[in-house]
Amino acid sequence: MRGDILVLAACMLLLAACKDENNPLDGDSPSNIVFPASNVSYAQHVQPLFNQTCALTGCHGDGQQQSGLRLTSYDNLMFGGQLVIVRGQPEQSTLVMRIEGRVGARMPLDRRSLNQNQITGIRAWIGEGALNN
């Protein structure tokens, strides 16, 4: 019985790790970030979305990251050791597959999924070459 309680406590800590107490949008899709249909900017659209939904302590922020992937900057995303973006090919990009829930657990984990505009925007950014713009 005591072992079950310890396992339950450990699971609760892991699930809570992706919650950012300072983020008023915790658990909500960040609806204030709207992507254009084309000419998507990494600095204006992609990174702010990551900052609100992914680049959090315990997820893909600074410090301990899930899967070793940091989404705190363009360089970390593109050159951080994991190939999650295939420039010009959103269908082949692990990032797209994960946010759509087509492979592995849907990201962001334990949070509402990105809205369709945001998913389409990330697809467009990758399709446009995943530039640091």
What's the short version?
Helices cover 39% and strands 0% of the residues. The protein has helices spanning 2-16, 42-53, 74-79, 94-100, 116-127.
Structure notes:
This protein has 133 residues and is mostly helical. The chain has one domain. The protein is built from five helices and no strands. It has helices at residues 2-16, 42-53, 74-79, 94-100, 116-127. α2 packs across α5. The longest helix is centred in the N-terminal third of the chain and has 15 residues, at 2-16. The radius of gyration is 16 Å and the shape is globular. The protein starts with a helix and ends in a 6-residue tail after the last helix. The model is unreliable at 4-27 (pLDDT under 50).
Features:
single chain; 133 residues; mainly alpha; 39% helix
SS content category: mainly alpha
Low-pLDDT runs of 5+ residues are 4-27
The string of secondary-structure elements, in order, is: HHHHH
Mean pLDDT: 81
Per DSSP E runs of 2 or more residues, the count of β-strands stands at 0
What oligomeric assembly is this protein in? single chain
Number of continuous helical runs: 5
Q: Helical residue percent?
A: 25-40%
Classify the beta-strand content into a percent band.
Answer: under 5%
Morphology: globular
How far is the first residue's CA from the last residue's CA?
55 Å
- Domain count, please report it: 1
How big is the Rg?
Answer: 16 Å
Biggest β-sheet strands, sense, barrel: none
